[in-house]
Amino acid sequence: MQIEVLKSKIHRVKVTQADLNYIGSITIDEDLMDVANMIEGEKVQIVNINNGERLETYIIKGARGSREVCLNGPAARKVAVGDVVIIISYGIMDFEQAKTFKPTLVFPNEETNELN
User: Fold this and answer.
1) Which pTM was predicted?
2) Which of 34, 53, 57, 58 could cross-link to 48 by cystine, CB 3.0-4.6 Å?
């Protein structure tokens, strides 16, 4: 049996931009992506701490070191710059493998998006 489990999470990161006139997705600093074990094009769930909104989109690689977290396209209506969000990705794996799998959890500085 295959099940879907938490693979990676960037916990409580600040939205730095919201660009309604972009095709879509979330742009994330490549450094944050690397440490969270996330890749460009990966499907993610975005949970907005400030307003309770939840949405799914995919990742676009942002400039390394920029600490950028930008919701693009229609998702920009679900956040405001300065909102704090959780970015979650899931993986599908064998049930037995999932019992011992350890997800990657990242806790950046909520104010600056710097990695601790």
Assistant:
1) 0.95
2) 53
